[in-house]
Q: What sequence folds into this?
């Protein structure tokens, strides 16, 4: 009798397992380490003997071991060598040393010399070289350059791009005629 | 009725200002672009198409030397143009249309002078003149055309005579 009850019990358990829905929980393993520091709605200043050289304003910044991730950030930096001011802003910025990876509504304004708008940009704070592989719009003087794959060396004033459309105002030219 | 007239007048002013604004722009399309501000040079390569109003120039490569603008020295403006490789253009002057071809075309905007170098060809739509020469000089201001040939490539000049024949009849 005991054995029969035991077999029935096993059968019920087996049937129970047949209809048991196992939840397919996939745990998202977050490869990103926890930030060392988190700043929110802050302004950071770089101050040297000459005064304020850089101002960084952001909604949120996460500081990790070897990089920083900022959201809705604006960097205003002053280059003493060329005495120019760069204003760089983006929805998302990742900073590794002098290298910045920017994404979303990227703007780079160089002391009213040029104004660059794009959705993705790699920028080196030291060399002032900007590169991207998407569409961009660059205003410089009376000219506007639209294109892809930008290479912009702000120190040596070199620009390269592909699939370009260049538009320039000829007002001064006509006046000279 | 008065309001309608005001709206029409405003609309016409808006259209005329838009057209006038577009007239002052030079547009250049190319597959590759380079600029070196230290050398005051802009370089366009690959399927280059330059347009200004109705004027069109097509070529393989286009070099534009720039200079500081007179009104604002911080801004650059074109000084001269050099179109190289399979150059063809259509130029609308005040009372004429010029169609040209050549290996190289130079344009000096201040002097309003064009030079076609190598396998030069120029067609004057108004008078039906056709010129084939190694070098063709065009003065936009005066309307004068000067031509140079080569030893092995003489100058060819063709004039449409249809009108004079009709007059004789």
A:
């Amino acid at each position: 009798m005991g054995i029969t009850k035991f077999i029935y019990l096993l059968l019920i358990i087996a049937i129970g397992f047949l209809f048991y829905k196992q939840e397919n929980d996939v745990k998202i393993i977050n490869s990103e380490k926890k930030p060392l520091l988190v700043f929110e709605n802050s302004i950071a200043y770089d101050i040297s003997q000459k005064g304020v050289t850089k101002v960084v304003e952001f909604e949120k910044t996460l500081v990790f071991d070897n990089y920083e991730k900022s959201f809705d950030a604006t960097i205003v930096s002053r280059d003493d060598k060329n005495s120019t001011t760069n204003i760089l802003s983006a929805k998302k910025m990742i900073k590794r040393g002098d290298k910045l990876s920017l994404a979303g509504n990227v703007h780079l304004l160089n002391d009213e010399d040029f104004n660059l708008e794009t959705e993705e940009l790699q920028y080196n704070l030291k060399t002032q070289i900007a590169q991207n592989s998407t569409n961009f719009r660059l205003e410089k003087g009376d000219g506007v350059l639209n294109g892809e794959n930008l290479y912009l060396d702000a120190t040596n004033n070199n620009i390269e791009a592909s699939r370009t459309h260049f538009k320039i105002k000829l007002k001064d030219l006509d006046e000279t005629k | 009725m008065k309001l309608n007239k005001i709206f029409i007048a405003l609309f016409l002013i808006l259209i005329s200002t838009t057209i006038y604004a577009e007239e002052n722009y030079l547009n250049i399309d190319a597959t590759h672009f380079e600029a070196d501000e230290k050398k005051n040079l802009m370089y366009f390569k690959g399927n280059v198409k330059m347009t200004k109003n109705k004027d069109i120039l097509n070529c393989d490569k286009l070099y534009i030397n720039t200079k500081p603008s007179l009104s604002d020295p911080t801004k650059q403006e074109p000084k001269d143009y050099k179109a190289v490789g399979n150059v063809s253009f259509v130029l609308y002057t005040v009372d004429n249309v010029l169609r040209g071809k050549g290996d190289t075309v130079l344009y000096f905007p201040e002097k309003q002078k064009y030079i076609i170098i190598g396998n030069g060809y120029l067609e004057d739509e108004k008078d039906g003149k056709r010129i084939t020469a190694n070098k063709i000089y065009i003065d936009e201001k005066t309307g004068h055309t000067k031509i140079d040939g080569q030893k092995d490539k003489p100058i060819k000049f063709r004039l449409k005579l249809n009108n004079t024949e009709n007059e004789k009849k």
